[in-house]
């Protein structure tokens, strides 16, 4: 049984482990960034657990613009109580638990929470090979992002709410 809940500071070691298994060193969020996100945007930082083991995470701040900007990876502000665009800076699932619907469950959980807060859209950047995954979940490809994060080519993906 999969359980999704808010991330807690004591999750940090396992969060870092999953993040580093799923992203390159240049792309992965640092321990400091995760700590700041847990403290600042706890209402949009969720983890998935199966059998009391952390297996995935999703997080991102609510932003005023429709697309993610690179400064978000280091500068996080508290989410407004309503409105804005729910960004997704990270969606990661332990490689041993991939292809089991966990990423989909995390996406849907964040979407429900975003709708409850009257967010305008969900917005993220992804690599080319993940475009179809997000399109399957109702996201639209808005083309190449200006992001230089991790030295990767990113694509803007949005889903209107």
Automatic annotation (TrEMBL):
One MF annotation (Gene Ontology) recorded for this entry: N-acetyltransferase activity
Domain of life: Bacteria
A Pfam family annotated for this UniProt entry: Acetyltransf_10
CDD domains: NAT_SF
Record keywords: Acyltransferase, Transferase
Domain N-acetyltransferase, residue spans: 2-161
PANTHER family: SEROTONIN N-ACETYLTRANSFERASE (PTHR10908:SF0)
Protein name as it appears in the record: GNAT family N-acetyltransferase
Lineage: Bacteria, Bacillati, Bacillota, Bacilli, Bacillales
């Amino acid at each position: 049984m999969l359980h999704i809940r808010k991330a807690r500071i004591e999750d940090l070691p396992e969060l870092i482990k999953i993040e580093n298994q799923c992203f390159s060193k240049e792309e992965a969020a640092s321990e400091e960034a995760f700590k700041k996100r847990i403290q600042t945007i706890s209402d949009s930082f969720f983890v998935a657990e199966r059998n009391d083991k952390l297996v995935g995470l999703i997080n991102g701040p609510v932003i005023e613009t429709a697309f993610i900007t690179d400064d978000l990876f280091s500068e996080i502000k508290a989410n407004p109580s309503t409105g804005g665009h729910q960004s997704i800076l990270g969606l990661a699932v332990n490689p041993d638990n991939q292809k089991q619907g966990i990423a989909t469950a995390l996406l849907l959980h964040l979407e429900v929470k975003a709708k409850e807060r009257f967010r305008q859209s969900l917005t993220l950047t992804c690599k080319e090979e993940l475009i179809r995954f997000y399109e399957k979940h109702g996201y639209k490809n808005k083309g190449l992002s200006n992001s230089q994060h991790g030295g990767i080519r990113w694509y803007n993906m949005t889903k209107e709410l």
